[in-house]
Input
Amino acid sequence: MTTVAEMESWLETDEDEHLERVAEEGSYSFATADLFVLDHLRRGDPVPPELKARLQRLVENNIVERFGRGRGVKYIPSRRFAEFLGDPAAYTRDRGLDRGTNKELLVKHLDLRGTEGCTLSELTLVLPQLTLEQVRTLLKELKQEQRVHLVGTTRSARWFSKSSTKT
Output
């Protein structure tokens, strides 16, 4: 958990001005617990259970965004809040690529590999921000769309794009 000294040093930067502006514009008053939640999100740490209620309040007030489903839910500071903090690129970085873009990256990599194809482990390196299961799900969708196909059944199985000559 963040120490009080760490939180104070974080707030001593220009970000305290941005927090004040968010509070003024959205008529939202930040409680100390809100600042702890934002600090956890900023560092990429999970929010402790005792702060989950505050997290929901931040989501409802558009200071934090929630995306994903099930166990893959991710919380990040909203685009507007990132702009207030003076780092709009952080929002784009944290949000990541959309599903369609991730699929296109996989297909493009398979196209580049041509008749050699790729193992699943190699494809996970193409999208390092995604888990193995997330990459598998994208590949399954691409297979249903008949854009890729799989040859083999073990760990050495290889994925190929539809445009490759290997069947």
Observations:
- The mean pLDDT is 82.
- The beta strands are 64-67, 74-77, 148-151, 158-161.
- DSSP finds nine helices and four strands in the chain.
